[in-house]
Automatic annotation (TrEMBL):
Top-level taxonomy: Eukaryota, Metazoa, Chordata, Craniata, Vertebrata
Organism, scientific name: Peromyscus maniculatus bairdii
InterPro entries: A-amylase/branching_C, A-amylase_C, Alpha_amylase, GH, GH13_cat_dom, Glyco_hydro_b
Record keyword Metal-binding present: yes
GO biological process entries: carbohydrate metabolic process; response to bacterium
SMART domains: Aamy, Aamy_C
Cellular component terms (Gene Ontology): extracellular space
One GO molecular-function entry: alpha-amylase activity
Assigned keywords, A-Z: Calcium, Carbohydrate metabolism, Chloride, Disulfide bond, Glycosidase, Hydrolase, Metal-binding, Pyrrolidone carboxylic acid, Signal
Cofactor entry: Ca(2+); chloride
Chain's gene name: LOC102904345
Name of the protein in question: Alpha-amylase
EC number: 3.2.1.1
Boundaries of every Alpha-amylase C-terminal domain copy: 422-510
Amino acid sequence: MKFFLLFSLIGFCWAQYDPHTAYGRSAIVHLFEWRWVDIAKECERYLAPNGFGGVQVSPPNENLVVNSPSRPWWERYQPISYKICSRSGNEDEFRDMVNRCNNVGVRIYVDAVINHMCGEGAQAGTSSTCGSYFNPHNRDFPAVPYSGWDFNDGKCKSGSGGIENYNDAYQVRDCRLSGLLDLALEKDYVRTTVANYMNHLIDMGVAGFRLDASKHMWPGDIKAVLDKLHNLNTQWFSQGSRPFIYQEVIDLGGEAVTSSEYFGNGRVTEFKYGAKLGTVIRKWNGEKMAYLKNWGEGWGFMPSDRALVFVDNHDNQRGHGAGGASILTFWDARLYKMAVGFMLAHPYGFTRVMSSYHWPRYFQNGQDINDWVGPPNDNGVTKEVTINPDTTCGNGWVCEHRWRQIRNMVAFRNVVNGQPFSNWWDNGSNQVAFGRGNRGFIVFNNDDWELSTTLQTGLPAGTYCDVISGDKIDGNCTGIKVYVGSDGNAHFSISNSAEDPFIAIHAESKI
Ligand code: QV4
Ligand code: CA
């Protein structure tokens, strides 16, 4: 029995649900559109020292160069070949990044675009990031190679060849998403070609994949690809480790395709999470934070051990994808920090932090007409992520992951890892608090009046440093101090006009 238990534990650790983060690290960050040279430096100078577990990187393979509009971010979701060659850098730079990040215990997860190639309407030629020739009209991608046989043109049964009806699972899987040429993943040749690309990355040392547009691939086809994948590189991972898989399926309910169909392959993005949390923190539709008491499965979300969660992603922070207006982003910084703080304190799901760049957001008739704008660049060449003396980023990079409140909550999550959700308190409105066993405690005031109350923290007696208003530095606290008595109680007061109306303390912020 003991042996069996041990065995199944190990089995879990090796499986596709496990992110293979270094011991004690529990969150990853999406460094959207960053160059590989900058990510390598960020792993060494910031992510490793601050306990980040890994990085989701933008698609590394060769893609269409779109000049009208000028170099939009979304061109990277239109593959031309599987050469490692993009605006983020070349294969040598990618390999160097994977080495250096792994060497400091920070994992790399690749955004794999394997459902399709470029749009049907793209011009034939060599307007691609590595200069490879392609002809979408003949379905010719010689740099892979793919040809007409490798696409779903014959299989799709919609009138236009595009997805017209999301209530028809066949259309969703076999027809073109936004005109993107749909790969025939039922063919062994296509499965093998895609698996070769992914294996190339695995052999370099990546720890797993975000599977883009998974809703548009049959779960069985995905499984057939995954079954061809190598184990992770034993230079950094234990023998027999399987790549971490999280599938992008937007399931807000009411469609033919559901998240649960994909659980057998790996984790799945839980898009209800950010949409609901945004609604609650904005206090829309009569929602209040008190209702978060049973956050997680209690809200109709997928099982925690299948969920990849986030407050916003690269799509819905700019009105693409799903979630709608309730999604909180860096543009609403005060509420956003509370949402990310809540996510990182709460045990549900495996968490991903977003890290963005600025763009000239401009609404016309409720639509951001600049939702296409690509990363900070000089004539199309992505700019370096520079670091200011105050540790924030320059050159137009937002770097939410470097905001003190967010960085310190990543550390909080690591400190409370494995501890139960405990000592919930609420005022029936938008003042709430909860702990994580005897390791951490967090209090929010999202009401329009002051919070002033004594709460059971579950923590050992002592003086703790609030890691939201400050930092524990050399045994001193630059922020608010919280005094926990021998009975575990502490008094909290949080003004509703505080810069950040929440307080978080944990075992390692004790002074
Ligand atoms: C246009 C027309 C189409 C027409 C086509 C003809 O709109 O009606 O059929 O031309 O060629 C871009 C343009 C889009 C254009 C298309 C093809 O925006 O207007 O079609 O290219 O040229 C990103 C962007 C898309 C972008 C795409 C490819 O969001 O706007 O399309 O990249 O460049 C659903 C899916 C979900 C998806 C989400 C956005 O279920 O899987 O929509 N999310 C992922 C990624 C996302 C990416 C894709 C999938 C596609 O997170 O970033 O789309 O890889 O919910
Ligand atoms: Ca498809």
